[in-house]
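Sharing a chain and its predicted structure for anyone who wants a worked example. Both blocks are below, sequence first, C-alpha coordinates second.
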Amino acid sequence: MWDYTDKVREHFLNPRNVGEVENPDGIGEVGSIACGDALKLTFRLGDDKKIAEAKFKTFGCASAIASSSALTEMIIGKTLEEAENISNENIAEFLGGLPKEKIHCSVMGQEALEKAIAYYRGEPEKVLEGEIVCHCFNVTDVDIQRAVKEKGLKTLEDVTGYLKAGGGCGNCHEEISNIIKASQGISIMEPKKPAAGLTNLQKIRKIEETLEIEIKPALMRDGGNIELVDVDGNRVLVRLQGACATCSRSRITLKDHVEARLRTLVAHDLVVEEA
Protein backbone atom coordinates (compact mmCIF):
# COMPACT_ATOMS: atom_id res chain seq x y z
CA MET A 1 0.00 0.00 0.00
CA TRP A 2 1.27 3.48 -0.84
CA ASP A 3 2.36 5.65 2.04
CA TYR A 4 0.41 8.90 1.71
CA THR A 5 1.17 11.89 3.93
CA ASP A 6 -1.49 13.47 6.11
CA LYS A 7 -1.51 16.48 3.79
CA VAL A 8 -2.21 14.30 0.74
CA ARG A 9 -5.09 12.66 2.58
CA GLU A 10 -6.43 16.04 3.68
CA HIS A 11 -6.42 17.47 0.13
CA PHE A 12 -7.98 14.24 -1.20
CA LEU A 13 -10.76 14.06 1.38
CA ASN A 14 -11.36 17.83 1.48
CA PRO A 15 -10.17 19.18 -1.88
CA ARG A 16 -10.00 22.94 -2.29
CA ASN A 17 -11.29 24.97 -5.23
CA VAL A 18 -13.16 22.21 -7.05
CA GLY A 19 -15.07 23.27 -10.16
CA GLU A 20 -14.57 25.72 -12.99
CA VAL A 21 -13.98 29.47 -12.85
CA GLU A 22 -16.64 31.51 -14.64
CA ASN A 23 -15.24 33.60 -17.50
CA PRO A 24 -11.68 32.38 -16.86
CA ASP A 25 -8.59 34.16 -18.09
CA GLY A 26 -6.65 30.92 -18.31
CA ILE A 27 -7.66 27.37 -19.25
CA GLY A 28 -5.36 24.35 -19.24
CA GLU A 29 -6.40 20.77 -20.03
CA VAL A 30 -4.13 17.72 -19.93
CA GLY A 31 -4.49 13.95 -19.87
CA SER A 32 -7.20 11.67 -21.14
CA ILE A 33 -10.36 10.41 -19.43
CA ALA A 34 -10.27 7.32 -21.65
CA CYS A 35 -6.88 6.43 -20.20
CA GLY A 36 -7.79 7.14 -16.59
CA ASP A 37 -6.26 10.56 -15.85
CA ALA A 38 -7.47 14.01 -16.89
CA LEU A 39 -7.19 17.50 -15.41
CA LYS A 40 -8.73 20.87 -16.29
CA LEU A 41 -7.36 23.98 -14.55
CA THR A 42 -8.94 27.43 -14.84
CA PHE A 43 -7.96 30.73 -13.27
CA ARG A 44 -9.02 34.39 -13.16
CA LEU A 45 -6.75 37.38 -12.65
CA GLY A 46 -7.63 40.26 -10.34
CA ASP A 47 -7.13 43.95 -11.07
CA ASP A 48 -3.62 43.66 -9.63
CA LYS A 49 -2.79 41.01 -12.27
CA LYS A 50 -2.43 38.35 -9.61
CA ILE A 51 -4.38 35.09 -9.70
CA ALA A 52 -7.53 35.86 -7.73
CA GLU A 53 -9.34 32.58 -8.30
CA ALA A 54 -8.29 29.11 -9.45
CA LYS A 55 -10.33 25.92 -9.73
CA PHE A 56 -9.85 22.40 -11.04
CA LYS A 57 -11.76 19.42 -12.36
CA THR A 58 -10.04 16.06 -12.43
CA PHE A 59 -10.72 12.45 -13.29
CA GLY A 60 -8.16 10.35 -11.51
CA CYS A 61 -6.84 8.91 -8.29
CA ALA A 62 -6.34 10.28 -4.78
CA SER A 63 -2.94 11.73 -5.70
CA ALA A 64 -4.38 13.47 -8.77
CA ILE A 65 -7.09 15.12 -6.68
CA ALA A 66 -4.64 16.11 -3.93
CA SER A 67 -2.06 17.47 -6.40
CA SER A 68 -4.67 19.53 -8.25
CA SER A 69 -6.12 20.89 -5.02
CA ALA A 70 -2.65 21.80 -3.75
CA LEU A 71 -1.77 23.52 -7.03
CA THR A 72 -4.77 25.84 -6.84
CA GLU A 73 -3.82 26.81 -3.29
CA MET A 74 -0.24 27.47 -4.37
CA ILE A 75 -1.03 29.77 -7.30
CA ILE A 76 -3.78 31.94 -5.79
CA GLY A 77 -2.29 35.33 -4.92
CA LYS A 78 0.67 34.92 -7.28
CA THR A 79 1.50 36.76 -10.49
CA LEU A 80 1.75 34.65 -13.64
CA GLU A 81 5.52 35.08 -13.57
CA GLU A 82 5.62 33.67 -10.05
CA ALA A 83 3.15 30.88 -10.81
CA GLU A 84 4.97 29.63 -13.89
CA ASN A 85 8.05 28.92 -11.76
CA ILE A 86 6.12 26.30 -9.78
CA SER A 87 7.46 22.84 -10.67
CA ASN A 88 5.99 19.41 -10.11
CA GLU A 89 8.62 18.94 -7.39
CA ASN A 90 7.20 22.02 -5.62
CA ILE A 91 3.71 20.52 -5.74
CA ALA A 92 4.96 17.23 -4.29
CA GLU A 93 6.90 19.08 -1.58
CA PHE A 94 3.80 21.12 -0.69
CA LEU A 95 2.02 17.83 -0.02
CA GLY A 96 4.87 16.44 2.04
CA GLY A 97 5.92 14.09 -0.75
CA LEU A 98 4.27 11.62 -3.13
CA PRO A 99 5.02 7.94 -3.82
CA LYS A 100 7.25 7.65 -6.90
CA GLU A 101 4.43 5.82 -8.69
CA LYS A 102 2.34 8.96 -8.27
CA ILE A 103 4.78 11.67 -9.34
CA HIS A 104 3.01 11.91 -12.70
CA CYS A 105 0.03 13.46 -10.88
CA SER A 106 2.12 16.47 -9.91
CA VAL A 107 3.58 16.58 -13.45
CA MET A 108 0.04 16.83 -14.86
CA GLY A 109 -0.60 19.77 -12.55
CA GLN A 110 2.49 21.59 -13.77
CA GLU A 111 1.56 20.92 -17.40
CA ALA A 112 -2.02 22.14 -16.90
CA LEU A 113 -0.69 25.35 -15.32
CA GLU A 114 1.70 25.91 -18.23
CA LYS A 115 -1.15 25.45 -20.72
CA ALA A 116 -3.46 27.78 -18.78
CA ILE A 117 -0.84 30.55 -18.72
CA ALA A 118 -0.10 30.04 -22.42
CA TYR A 119 -3.85 30.30 -23.12
CA TYR A 120 -4.01 33.66 -21.31
CA ARG A 121 -1.01 34.98 -23.23
CA GLY A 122 -2.44 33.83 -26.54
CA GLU A 123 0.54 31.61 -27.21
CA PRO A 124 0.09 28.76 -29.68
CA GLU A 125 0.15 25.18 -28.42
CA LYS A 126 3.67 23.87 -28.15
CA VAL A 127 4.72 21.71 -31.06
CA LEU A 128 5.66 18.28 -29.77
CA GLU A 129 9.34 17.43 -30.09
CA GLY A 130 10.04 14.06 -31.65
CA GLU A 131 7.60 11.27 -32.47
CA ILE A 132 4.69 10.29 -30.25
CA VAL A 133 5.35 6.99 -28.49
CA CYS A 134 2.46 6.96 -26.01
CA HIS A 135 -0.68 8.03 -27.86
CA CYS A 136 -2.84 7.86 -24.73
CA PHE A 137 -0.90 10.74 -23.12
CA ASN A 138 0.89 12.33 -26.11
CA VAL A 139 4.37 11.54 -24.80
CA THR A 140 7.18 11.57 -27.36
CA ASP A 141 10.48 9.75 -27.63
CA VAL A 142 12.25 13.05 -26.87
CA ASP A 143 10.21 13.47 -23.66
CA ILE A 144 11.23 9.99 -22.53
CA GLN A 145 14.90 10.43 -23.46
CA ARG A 146 15.05 13.73 -21.58
CA ALA A 147 13.38 12.30 -18.47
CA VAL A 148 15.66 9.25 -18.42
CA LYS A 149 18.78 11.41 -18.56
CA GLU A 150 17.67 14.31 -16.34
CA LYS A 151 15.69 12.39 -13.71
CA GLY A 152 17.70 9.16 -13.66
CA LEU A 153 14.75 6.96 -14.66
CA LYS A 154 15.79 3.36 -15.19
CA THR A 155 12.68 1.25 -15.78
CA LEU A 156 9.36 1.29 -17.61
CA GLU A 157 7.67 1.72 -14.22
CA ASP A 158 9.85 4.78 -13.51
CA VAL A 159 8.84 6.36 -16.83
CA THR A 160 5.16 5.61 -16.28
CA GLY A 161 5.35 7.01 -12.77
CA TYR A 162 6.98 10.25 -13.93
CA LEU A 163 5.53 10.91 -17.40
CA LYS A 164 2.44 8.65 -17.34
CA ALA A 165 3.68 7.20 -20.64
CA GLY A 166 2.61 3.56 -20.86
CA GLY A 167 -0.13 4.05 -18.29
CA GLY A 168 -3.00 3.54 -20.71
CA CYS A 169 -3.44 0.78 -23.28
CA GLY A 170 0.09 -0.55 -22.83
CA ASN A 171 0.86 -0.89 -26.54
CA CYS A 172 3.94 1.35 -26.19
CA HIS A 173 5.68 -0.61 -23.40
CA GLU A 174 8.22 -2.31 -25.64
CA GLU A 175 9.13 0.93 -27.43
CA ILE A 176 9.52 2.77 -24.12
CA SER A 177 11.80 0.02 -22.82
CA ASN A 178 13.92 0.26 -25.96
CA ILE A 179 14.22 4.05 -25.60
CA ILE A 180 15.33 3.63 -21.98
CA LYS A 181 18.02 1.14 -23.00
CA ALA A 182 19.22 3.30 -25.88
CA SER A 183 19.38 6.37 -23.61
CA GLN A 184 21.47 4.39 -21.14
CA GLY A 185 23.77 3.10 -23.87
CA ILE A 186 22.51 -0.47 -23.51
CA SER A 187 22.12 -2.64 -26.57
CA ILE A 188 18.45 -3.22 -27.33
CA MET A 189 19.24 -6.86 -28.08
CA GLU A 190 20.74 -7.37 -24.64
CA PRO A 191 18.69 -10.00 -22.79
CA LYS A 192 16.66 -8.64 -19.95
CA LYS A 193 17.27 -10.12 -16.54
CA PRO A 194 14.09 -11.62 -15.17
CA ALA A 195 12.54 -9.53 -12.44
CA ALA A 196 11.31 -11.10 -9.27
CA GLY A 197 7.56 -11.58 -9.76
CA LEU A 198 4.78 -11.23 -7.24
CA THR A 199 3.45 -14.31 -5.51
CA ASN A 200 -0.24 -14.98 -6.10
CA LEU A 201 -1.09 -13.71 -2.61
CA GLN A 202 0.98 -10.55 -3.12
CA LYS A 203 -0.72 -9.97 -6.48
CA ILE A 204 -4.20 -10.31 -4.96
CA ARG A 205 -3.34 -7.91 -2.13
CA LYS A 206 -1.89 -5.41 -4.59
CA ILE A 207 -5.01 -5.63 -6.76
CA GLU A 208 -7.22 -5.10 -3.69
CA GLU A 209 -5.18 -2.06 -2.61
CA THR A 210 -5.27 -0.56 -6.10
CA LEU A 211 -9.03 -1.01 -6.37
CA GLU A 212 -9.58 0.59 -2.96
CA ILE A 213 -7.25 3.56 -3.36
CA GLU A 214 -7.06 4.24 -7.10
CA ILE A 215 -10.27 3.04 -8.71
CA LYS A 216 -13.17 2.98 -6.25
CA PRO A 217 -13.00 6.71 -5.34
CA ALA A 218 -13.44 7.78 -8.97
CA LEU A 219 -16.33 5.37 -9.54
CA MET A 220 -18.05 6.30 -6.27
CA ARG A 221 -18.06 9.99 -7.21
CA ASP A 222 -20.37 9.01 -10.08
CA GLY A 223 -22.57 6.77 -7.93
CA GLY A 224 -20.85 3.52 -8.85
CA ASN A 225 -18.59 0.97 -7.23
CA ILE A 226 -16.60 -2.16 -7.97
CA GLU A 227 -16.08 -5.47 -6.14
CA LEU A 228 -13.22 -7.93 -6.59
CA VAL A 229 -14.72 -11.40 -7.13
CA ASP A 230 -11.71 -13.58 -7.96
CA VAL A 231 -8.18 -13.63 -9.37
CA ASP A 232 -7.37 -16.56 -11.66
CA GLY A 233 -3.82 -16.31 -12.98
CA ASN A 234 -3.73 -13.06 -14.94
CA ARG A 235 -7.56 -12.82 -15.06
CA VAL A 236 -9.15 -10.38 -12.62
CA LEU A 237 -12.88 -10.98 -12.18
CA VAL A 238 -14.85 -8.02 -10.86
CA ARG A 239 -18.45 -6.99 -10.37
CA LEU A 240 -19.57 -3.45 -11.13
CA GLN A 241 -22.12 -2.00 -8.73
CA GLY A 242 -24.44 0.99 -8.44
CA ALA A 243 -24.58 3.30 -11.45
CA CYS A 244 -21.69 1.43 -13.09
CA ALA A 245 -23.71 -1.83 -13.22
CA THR A 246 -26.27 -0.38 -15.62
CA CYS A 247 -24.06 2.10 -17.48
CA SER A 248 -23.83 1.60 -21.24
CA ARG A 249 -20.12 2.48 -21.04
CA SER A 250 -19.31 -0.18 -18.42
CA ARG A 251 -17.09 -2.15 -20.82
CA ILE A 252 -15.09 1.00 -21.58
CA THR A 253 -14.76 1.64 -17.85
CA LEU A 254 -13.43 -1.89 -17.29
CA LYS A 255 -10.89 -1.81 -20.11
CA ASP A 256 -9.79 1.82 -20.34
CA HIS A 257 -9.84 2.66 -16.64
CA VAL A 258 -9.83 -0.42 -14.37
CA GLU A 259 -7.65 -2.70 -16.51
CA ALA A 260 -5.32 0.13 -17.53
CA ARG A 261 -4.70 1.13 -13.90
CA LEU A 262 -4.11 -2.44 -12.75
CA ARG A 263 -1.70 -3.07 -15.63
CA THR A 264 0.25 0.04 -14.71
CA LEU A 265 0.35 -0.46 -10.96
CA VAL A 266 0.26 -4.25 -10.47
CA ALA A 267 1.21 -6.32 -13.55
CA HIS A 268 1.26 -5.50 -17.25
CA ASP A 269 -0.46 -8.73 -18.33
CA LEU A 270 -3.62 -8.51 -16.21
CA VAL A 271 -6.96 -8.91 -17.98
CA VAL A 272 -10.07 -7.54 -16.27
CA GLU A 273 -13.38 -9.30 -16.89
CA GLU A 274 -16.85 -8.85 -15.46
CA ALA A 275 -17.95 -11.79 -13.33
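Comments welcome. The mean pLDDT is 86.
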